Amino acid sequence: MSRVVKLENKSNERNIVSSRIVKKNNMIKIAAKLFSQKSFHDVTMDEIAEKVGVAKGTIYLYFSSKDNLYLEILEHTFDSIESLLEKEVNTDFLAPDKLKKVLAIVINFYRENIDVLKILSRDETHLIQEHHDLTEKWRRRRIELYEKIIEKGIKEGSFKTGNTELAALILYGAVGAVMVFYDLNKSPEAIAEELYSEIASGLFH
């Protein structure tokens, strides 16, 4: 087989893989909207297939079941935001600036993925054990990420707290409440600044 043919075959393979990823992500996006509008049990694979514009059998080529699809919606979301946050945590900024940036990223991400936020705020992940395990794993990772920033702040002399885990838990809970109940007409940066000011005055000084 000639080098040109091999390169063409590899290019075709990459295009096929890319096309499948695009299709799968589109299914996840449409399914997330449906799950945000109705309960897990009220959404059917037939309905998802109709909204996507494919036969139900095509959905099963990408997801083994409705449970699996629901789980992948959450996993796709968590992987996406954690990737963004990890990059920010590894920067050289001082802890206060780093924490504000992280808060803004979280707020902006869920604003852009409001359907998943609605799913999470309804707390339906208890329906299946795997859902609970997944959300618990990412909850723990987020808390550890906040702890890492807080510990950096303590070393710098920016923060003062005797219990970094408790401070991280309070921060985690506050962010969740703000995302659900606060005025999201403000910019992510403005909300992050307000949230940081309120929390820092009580936790870190």
Descriptive account of the structure:
With 205 residues, the protein is an all-alpha fold. Helices cover 79% and strands 0% of the residues. It contains nine helices and no strands. Helix 4 (66-89) runs antiparallel to helix 5 and helix 4 runs parallel beside helix 7. The chain starts with a helix and ends with a helix.
> Remind me, CATH topology of the largest domain?
Tetracycline Repressor, domain 2
Number of domains: 2
Tell me how many strands there are.
0
- CATH C-level name of the largest domain: Mainly Alpha
How many helix segments?
Answer: 9
Give the H and E element order: HHHHHHHHH
**Compute the gyration radius: what is it?**
21 Å
Oligomer: single chain
CATH homologous group name of the largest domain:
Tetracycline Repressor, domain 2
Query: Beta-strand percentage?
Result: under 5%
